[in-house]
Amino acid sequence: MTNSRPHIGIFGRRNSGKSSLINLLTAQNVAIVSDTPGTTTDPVKKSVEIFGIGPAIIVDTAGIDDIGALGQKRIQKSIEAIKKVDCAILLIAGNQFGVYEIDLIRQFEKLDTPYLIVHNKKDIAKIASHTKTVIKQYSNAQVIDFSAKNAKKTDKLIEAIKKIIPENVYQKTSLMGDLVKPKDVVLLITPIDSEAPEGRMILPQNQAIRDALDNNSITVVVKETELGDFLALGIKPALAVTDSQAFGYVSERIPESVPLTSFSILFARLKGDFDAYLQGTPHIAELKDGDNILILESCTHQVSCDDIGRVKIPKLLQKFTGKKLSFTFVSGLSEIGPPKSPQGGTYALVIQCGGCMVTRKQLLNRLKPFISERTPVTNYGMTLAYVNGIFERATAVFSPLEKGTGD
Question: How far apart are the first and last CA of the chain?
């Protein structure tokens, strides 16, 4: 899946050689090279294979020194791209290092984005000692003097990139590997409703099935309508995982002795700030009339009458609380803006989807402004567990040590 590949952002001024560097790293002409500044406009994702690194996503950004009203919008999009990458390359050329680069470095550090600095076009002008001295005043990052025209000298650059890619991007993560043992029976309950894609499973269900099989579990998949038939066989699962929307129905039928959670909660632990979710979810009981709730969907999709985020959760929250609530919806990785509601105050609650289509870094940076403002955050699965009265049961499978996975 592309969302699990390292996302490498290329940042710098116009005409610093970003496109040439991308073409060199990928050994193909995936970016337009031009002597005209501003050839690259909006950030562009490219799925590539980098020799020595493997599958990766290159994020090519517009020049940080773009001009005009449109240029300012492009610069803002380049800054926003920092939230979505796992690491960054700050490209400079001609010994230019000033306010543009310093601002980028501050953004990298603010968002905990590892980076290195590459002085490009050394075939025209090598990096000067004065430039190195100035850089050291603002950054401890590795600095490499380089020429994108010399394909034989990429080894050092590749090694430097590998060093700044966070280890957790490469690590094979598991949804339930620490919850079950080989030969354990894992029961996956997957309702098929109007939101289910024709002829296939939704991504979280697909990944959970594969994860259970990878952990050598005896994996049983049933719809909720066949749950009773399976339980009648007398087989006790080591773990039951359900679609969150079926929590109420399933929890009444699965024995209390069987650990029960949901696909969404598994993803909350894998990608989100699990501690923040655990602390934020109970704030549902404190919602008041007029409170505005922000619902974040990490993907874009056609909205149906059964839509979980835009229809079901709002209805369930208003029924559970008995309050008149308002809701704001943001889909994809669109810019959210300040952590304030459209009404002017802060959001009373932020509810994030499972995040199966985005990286952990992208999801954490999406939540970070709200957590910093002490706005309660939760996710779809935990919200549904709470309003069904089984929040404690749905999270009990994770020990206190495992709950400490938030950043």
Answer: 23
* Helix boundaries (H) for 67-153: 68-81, 99-110, 129-138
Residue 204's pLDDT band (boundaries 50, 70, 90)? confident
Q: How many residues does the chain have?
A: 407
- The string of pLDDT tens digits covering residues 171-201 is 667 899 999 999 999 999 998 865 666 777 8
Mean pLDDT of 339-351: 80
What one-character-per-residue DSSP string does 360-406 give? HHHHHHHHHHHHHTT--EEEHHHHHHHHTT-HHHHHHTS-HHHHTT-
Q: Which helix (H) or strand (E) holds 65?
A: none
Structure-block tokens of residue 103: 């601002």
How does DSSP classify residue 208?
H
Q: Are the C-beta atoms of 187 and 237 separated by less than 8 Å?
A: yes
Q: What residues pair up with 295 in beta bridges, in sequence order? A: 329, 351
Q: Give CATH for domain 185-265.
A: 3.40.50.11420
Which residues, 6+ apart, have CB-to-CB distance to 246 below 8 Å? 189, 191, 224
The answer to whether residues 77 and 45 touch, using CB atoms and an 8 Å cutoff, is no
In which residue ranges of the chain is CATH 3.40.50.11420 found?
A: 185-265
- Six-digit token string for 39: 């050839």
Give ranges for CATH 3.40.50.300 in the chain: 2-170
Residue found by looking up tokens 């206190």 in the block: 400
The pTM (predicted TM-score) of the whole model is 0.71
Is the domain spanning 272-403 CATH 3.40.50.11410? The answer is yes
Residues of the chain with CATH 3.40.50.11410: 272-403
Q: How does DSSP classify residue 218? A: E
The tokens for 401 are: 């040590």
Identify the bridge partners of residue 329 per DSSP, sorted by sequence position: 295
Q: Which of 324, 399, 397, 313 is nearest to 354 (CA)?
A: 313
* 201, two tokens: 């499973």
d(Cα 216, Cα 221) in Å, to the nearest integer?
Answer: 15
Residue 269 token pair: 């632990």
According to CATH, what is the number of the domain 2-170? 3.40.50.300
Q: How far is CA 3 from CA 162, 271, 336, in A?
A: 18, 11, 21
User: Average per-residue pLDDT in the chain?
Assistant: 86
